[in-house]
């Protein structure tokens, strides 16, 4: 019951107009038949939105370390009518997907939780199609905030450096989120 409440709150926060979910989705340039990995999918708000955007012939993977979050997504009424969502639990060896199978990995507010980030993203690079991308949204440091006080953020320069080490270059940076970074990366040519 407590977990269900938590995931509902995560979805409420993700869908709040102040967090600009429609602008985020619009700037991801999703299309029919696309394959998207929603890493740190939480309650599944973006998983469900991506599912609509990529259509019946697309595929969305809700990827998380939290089995209860994945169960919440699987058992959510929105998921019952959707055939293009699959839940995947992250294992110690990474994400179990075929190489060159994903068009876009999306991470919102989870980058700062990932250990060994450069190695992790090198592993994701192998799973991306040739023109695949990684979209990262993470908190920017604010001194007098929960995220700033408890280290739940990633400085922009650190994020850029880690992604460069992992073999990615910045394709696009968006500035419409007041307290967060929003960057899209592509493989080095």
UniProtKB/TrEMBL annotation:
Organism, scientific name: Methanobacterium formicicum (strain DSM 3637 / PP1)
May I ask which residue range the UniProt record assigns to the signal sequence? none
Gene Ontology biological process: methylation
Indicate the segments forming the Methyltransferase domain, all copies: 32-140
Lineage, opening ranks: Archaea, Methanobacteriati, Methanobacteriota, Methanomada group, Methanobacteria
Its recorded name reads Type 11 methyltransferase
Q: Which Pfam families match?
A: Methyltransf_31
- Name the keywords, alphabetized: Methyltransferase, Transferase
Annotated InterPro entries: Methyltranfer_dom (IPR025714), SAM-dependent_MTases_sf (IPR029063)
Q: Which domain of life is it from?
A: Archaea
Gene Ontology terms, MF aspect: methyltransferase activity
């Amino acid at each position: 019951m407590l977990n269900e409440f938590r995931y509902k709150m995560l979805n409420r926060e993700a869908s709040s107009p102040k967090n600009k979910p429609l602008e985020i989705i619009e700037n991801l340039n999703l299309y029919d038949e696309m394959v998207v990995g929603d890493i740190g999918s939480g309650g599944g708000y973006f998983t469900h939105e991506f599912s609509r955007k990529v259509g019946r012939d697309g595929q969305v993977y809700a990827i998380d370390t939290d089995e209860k979050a994945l169960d919440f997504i699987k058992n959510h009424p929105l998921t019952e009518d959707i055939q293009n969502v699959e839940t995947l639990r992250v294992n110690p060896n990474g994400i179990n997907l075929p190489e060159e199978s994903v068009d876009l990995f999306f991470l919102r507010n989870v980058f700062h939780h990932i250990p060994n980030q450069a190695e992790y993203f090198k592993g994701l690079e192998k799973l991306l199609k040739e023109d695949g991308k990684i979209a990262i949204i993470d908190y920017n440091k604010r001194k007098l905030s929960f995220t700033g006080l408890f280290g739940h953020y990633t400085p922009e320069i650190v994020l850029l450096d880690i992604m460069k080490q992992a073999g990615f270059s910045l394709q696009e940076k968006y500035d419409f989120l007041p307290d967060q970074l929003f960057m899209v990366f592509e493989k080095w040519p």
